Amino acid sequence: MQATDWARDIADHLHTADEQGALERLARLQPFDRAEVLARLEPADRLRLFRLLPTTLAAETLEYLEPELQYRILDHLDEPAAAAVLQQMSSDTVVDLLLALHPLQAARLKAWLPPAYRQRIDTLMTFPENTAGSLATIEYIAAREGWTVQQALEHVRKVGHDAEVVSYIYVVDARGRLVRVASLRELILADPRAPLSAIGRPDVIAVRATADREEAARLLARYDFVALPVVDDHDRLLGIITIDDIVDVIHREATEDIQRLGGSVPLAESYFKTPVLMLFRKRVGWLLTLFVAEAYTGTVLRHFEDILSQVVGLAFFIPLLIGTGGNTGTQTVSTLVRALAVGEVTFRDLLRVLARELATGVLLGTVMAAATYVRAHTLGVGFELGPVVAVTALFIVVWASMVAAVLPLLLHRLGVDPAVVSGPFITTLVDGTGLFLYFTVARLMLGLH
């Protein structure tokens, strides 16, 4: 059944006073699906059903709702029940909720948290949105360096039900610095009397709280962890980032890159949640910028209008040649932006990248030159203009490959998202320069003045 069908079925049970039947149906669903159903119910039915959920189910369901709806539900619950649900939610979700609310609303919710927990939440809230610290959760299992394996296992049994991940036990010293990481498997198989200092790995892979969240994604992907510890500048353990949060990061980053590559400012909300005026604002700036940049192609045409007047047939190939250049540049940019995003390429690889794209451009240009020469013959101007358009196609493809190879790396070096070198931007840049190459080649090969 779809979420809409589940919502309709559950609403029917509520309207017939069969609250138990509605609750049983909702409880059978996965947390995400429960949240989808609740979001589709009428506000009164939603609140009525939410009050029936056990605290654990209510908390894990609430995590998948939008912050505005999360607050609306908590605000209508009795304070003890709302506080219990809030404290059961994962700390990273609580941070996201508090940051999305008005400060007075956030202060009201924070007052329901235990002082020690509230202090740690406040720490996580200090990290900017795009940092690893903003993704961290404090529901992890930490053990003291001086404990034995038996003590650590007893601690896991005591606090493990509140942890997001029990696969790893993070060993800290007296100052809270992360010194080792041991897997639960290693603990179970070890001698119960062995010290934790002899278990696990001392060469801990961790991420700084101030690092970019993409760095955390790269580390998790590289080492196949299910969670990554987050530390401060003094190596004190602040929290962990779980794989599900990283999947969300990868999804958001990929979405932003795709939107930028299309020549648009990324959307903050999903497509249908974004108002038409906001879509207009996100796109109009780039369109005007590209319009201004494209205007110089008219200047190039005017500069060479004497050549066009002498050989009108040259005009037949203008769309073909500049389109080929733009397509070549877009292919190169798309490849390199992705390679930069996953860490396969850095600025230090500039010369290697340029050499590879130059070689690729020559091969592609040779093929396109042959195709363009054939096209010239089909138009009946092959003997006169075929060599001109063929040579120009080769030059334009090579030129577009080189420009599209260098610009993303330079922008990345300057701290600018290379995705802004979008397909439309490269196309616009290559259009004018391609026309200049075209008419320059025509002038030289045809002996025009």
Radius of gyration (Å)? 30 Å
How much strand? 5-15%
- Please summarize the sheet with the most strands: 3 strands, mixed
Structural class: mainly alpha
What's the arrangement of strands in the largest beta sheet?
1-2-3
Number of helices: 20
Question: For the residues shown, what is the average pLDDT?
Answer: 85
Number of strands: 6
Q: How far is it from the N-terminal to the C-terminal residue, by CA? A: 73 Å
Flag low-confidence runs.
none
Tell me the helix content. Answer: 55-70%
Order of helices and strands: HHHHHHHHHHEHEEHEHEEHHHHHHH
Dominant shape: elongated
Give a description of the structure.
With 449 residues, this protein is mainly alpha-helical. It is built from 20 helices and six strands. The protein has helices spanning 3-15, 19-27, 31-40, 43-52, 55-62, 67-76, 79-88, 91-100, 103-110, 115-124, 149-159, 184-189, 213-223, 243-261, 276-303, 305-310, 318-341, 350-378, 382-413, 423-446, and strands at residues 142-144, 168-172, 178-183, 207-208, 227-231, 237-242. The protein is elongated. The mean pLDDT is 85.
